[in-house]
Amino acid sequence: MANKIGRFEVLRKLGEGAQGKVYLARDPHLDRPVAIKTLLHASDHMNTLLTEARIVSKLQHKNIVALFDAGEHEAAVYLVYAFVEGQTLAQLLCDEITLAPVQAAKIVCGILEGASHAHQQGIVHLDLKPSNIIIAENGQPLIMDFGIARSITQDSVKNSQINGTP
Q1: Residue 33 belongs to what H/E stretch?
Q2: How far apart are the first and last CA of the chain?
């Protein structure tokens, strides 16, 4: 792992999925923590991250993790997101036997508010699942990982098939 990605100082790896890695880093210009998303096979999927950046950059909502920047480092694109201290909904569900009804309702309502905002912008996430929801320390649910999201227009709905997580 490099000590830097662009201007950002990498502190540690936060997670790794089938397609990429996410690092906790420090932005030295703004002196704040950030999460940096990279792809494992960056040269093959450069357009994937750029598409995600273009989609997420349109979304400013309290229930969607904010995109701060996109850049290129060593011929690979990376995305810089707000770092949210917390745990994924998947982790929370593993730790808790059951959620209190009020807590569960707050989480679901937050997810629906974020998804509704995305839909109003013509964007469908296509991969909403517990591992793509982070619960901040204050209990606020935020949608993350718009990697397979799509901008939907009437023409795109008529002319293509949309695939995602059922």
Answers
A1: strand 32-39
A2: 34
What CA–CA distance (Å, rounded) separates 86 from 91?
10
- Residue appearing with tokens 């950002």: 8
Distance CA 95, CA 80 (A): 28
Report if pTM > 0.70.
yes
Total residue count of the chain as it appears in this document: 166
Q: How far apart are CA 88 and CA 129, in angstroms?
A: 10
Query: Model confidence at 154, in pLDDT bands (50, 70, 90)?
Result: very low
Question: Whose structure tokens read 């502190």?
Answer: 11
Query: What tokens does 9 get?
Result: 């100082």
| 101 CB-near residues (< 8 Å, 6+ apart) | none
Positions marked catalytic: 127
Cα 15 off chain centre by: 12
Side chain identity, residue 22 = V
pLDDT value of residue 67: 93
Give the model confidence (pLDDT) of 6-27 as tens digits.
Answer: 999 999 999 887 677 899 999 9
